[in-house]
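Before a computer can learn anything about folding, someone has to put a protein's shape into writing. The outcome of that step, for a single protein, is printed below:
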Amino acid sequence: MTHSALSAFPFLPHSFRIRPSVRSAGAVVPALVLTLMLFAGKATAVSAHDEPPQPSGADVVRNAERAILDACIREEGTSAVRCGCYVATLKKTLPSAHYDTMVRLAAAGMTGDMQAFENLIAEEELDPQALEEMIQTTDRALKAAEKICEAR
């Protein structure tokens, strides 16, 4: 796993960070992406028929965005404006389907709901390579968002 894959989601709460002393582009490296990668292999083995499907649609994505914003706002040294900028920039930068899936994965990881995480990976039929590609794309988008949102 590359360092760039681990640097996604710099605005997530402290409890999801790997090591507070490790910094990347001025932000602490989060454990969420590591969690996404570690559980990807296990989660891809889950059949979509094992659990009832998670609700989908715009409401699920909005709820996931809200969970990310709330966690970001609670983080020391951030502002609601900066947190909103991150989410808005990602929404503009990432392809819609990619964004929807990543924001839902992030919210499941942030809440510690590994069942929702595994169900989403099964629902989206994400294999480890597809998940890694999504994380890489998100990482690039977040680096762009950091540049845009840094002063807010």
